[in-house]
Request: fold
Amino acid sequence: METQSSRWLGHGLYLLIMAILISGVYFSGQRINYTWHWERLWPYIVNTDPQDIFAETDGTVVIDEKGTLSIEPDYGGDPQIVREYTTLVAYDGDLIFQGDTLARLEGWRFGPIAEGLWVTIKLSFISLIFSIILGLIFGLMRISHRQVMRNLAVTYVEVIRGTPLLVQIFIVYFFIGTVFDLDRFTAGVAALSIFTGAYVAEIVRAGIQSVPTGQMEAARSLGMNYVQAMCYVIMPQAIKRTLPPLAGQFINLIKDSSLVSVISITDLTKAGREVVSGSFAPFEVWFTVAALYLIVTGALSWAIQILEKRLSASD
Reply:
């Protein structure tokens, strides 16, 4: 049995090891004469600089009594209307050319890294929902009494698990996406859902088969049909047993979502590459990107642990 003093000693050793690792990273940077510029990174996360509003066409500035700014194009067409601004740069009656600054908008807004993080979260969440649906369907098909169902499920699982995700993304985007006219985001969601669904299907199958067969026999002897027995007896037990492997698979899904940057979806990874080229702070950017992925995956792991504890307490 671990004592209180041994636990504190363990915490102290952990902090010592982490301090050594962080020091190693710092002195490695010093060894290659790298100058850290963390201050360059903040505007790419939350930008507080004034935002210039530019003219989209040549024309004349018109400002009405409500303060709405518009540009009447010289060569016809719809006027450009600007309702929200803080400071005017152009005034009523001014001649404006395309690209000229009309006004400035004060305030803060999310930078490319924060926007990329939101795209990653949205992409991962939608893919997670569809992968659960696919996994449940094909997991049940794997244990079906009908041979055709089992064959279809085995084919899906083996083909998807036996080919790289990157190749599947290209196939979904360039072939299936062209046939069905899918945009980049939809193609990315489809590829991630199909890929993760194959692994979820095997986890669901293993969870159902881990429940003793006597549970199904007992449920049927009480007058339940097959569907009722699965819903009320087998699946609740299987879900509790599959939560840990499902948590690992969903965490992998979040990390695998970084591959959709190859089809020009500006997720966290692609935003990181773009920021590196503009900030010239590669180490700071990639350490920040890694930390953001860790926060997202850690939050998901923590949520599943809470769910697991609540389900175990209900036994």
Observations:
- The first helix runs from residue 4 to 31.
- Strands lie at 46-47, 51-54, 59-63, 69-73, 80-82, 87-88, 95-96, 101-105, 109-110.
- The first strand starts at residue 46 and ends at 47.
